[in-house]
Amino acid sequence: MSDCQDLPREARELITLARQWIPYGRVPAELVFQTFGITEHQFVDRLWAVVQGTRCDPHLVRALSSTYPRRRPHWAAPTTRGSSPV
């Protein structure tokens, strides 16, 4: 893959599948499960773990970001910047 460094097979497969489905909005959950045996949320989490650990092309990263937004951890508290406590 010319957009990222040499990656392990599963990492390449995650990025390749995600990239192929960018024009269609995202990979269908059923296909994610059939291919990797994981949920759609797990797919997005793994995708970003892989992308963050590589030097992927910035254009690809932007396209992935718009299609597969990074999820905030469920335990993360909402930010309240600029809001008053009252």
Distance between the termini: 52 Å
> How can the largest sheet be summarized?
none
What is the ordering of alpha helices and beta strands?
Answer: HHHH
What level of helicity do the residues show?
A: 40-55%
SS element count, helices: 4
- What integer value in Å does the Rg equal? 15 Å
Model regions low in confidence, pLDDT < 50 over at least 5 residues: none
Instruction: Give a count of the beta strands, DSSP E runs of length 2 or more.
Output: 0
Oligomer: single chain
Shape verdict: globular
Let me know the average pLDDT.
84
Secondary-structure content class: mainly alpha
Please report which band the strand proportion falls in: under 5%, 5-15%, 15-25%, 25-35%, 35-45% or over 45%.
under 5%
